[in-house]
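Exam review. A common question shows you a sequence with its structure tokens and asks you to describe the fold in words. Practice with the pair below. Do the first one on your own.
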Amino acid sequence: MMVIVVENAPPNLRGRLAAWLLEIRAGVYIGTYSTRTRERIWEQVASGIGEGDAVLAWQVPNDQGFDFETIGQNRRIPVEFDGLKLVSFLPACGTPKAK
């Protein structure tokens, strides 16, 4: 299974994703495809996301049971930590720095 979540995506990309995957909420798409098809869908997202951002998560046989990729500007960034992929948060714009 794979899940794609898009934010601020152009309407043509959202329509293309809806043709391949089930849109269960606004900007949240799910489906079950082979690795090759998943990679091709992600290439379409990468080429059409514009100023938006997206995340792709899919099932894999590892300790977490899934893996994920992101594209575009977002406060959440993936980081590797001791063999696990976690999410780190960048500071919010305009947040005062601690002394």
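Now try the second one, then compare your answer with the model answer below.
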Amino acid sequence: MTTPLTDEDRAARLSALTALLDLMRPSVQADGGDLVLIRADVEAGVVEVQLQGACSSCAISSSTLQGGVERILRGRLDWITEVIGSVDETMDLETSSSMGSGGYVPRYRDL
């Protein structure tokens, strides 16, 4: 049986999680998106995050969630057992696309 977390342990875990997300957010924001914490069960180790803004029209949003966000969170915070990721789909495609180009969009030059 595991020992229940103290209030200080829970606060420390939540603080470490929010600090790590704050470190990651500028990369997502640089492409017109955002990364937000939806919920965190620090006892069970389950974290839910959401990509917003230009991320909703980005072709690699699921890769960003799995290969980037989840990998970093689980790699740096050993108490995290599961990362649930989603993309905010309430924004229409045109508005989302206008918010940022995303790193995956090829840039063409006049030849």
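Model answer, second protein: Residues 7-29 form the longest helix (23 residues). The first strand starts at residue 33 and ends at 41. Full marks require stating both points clearly.
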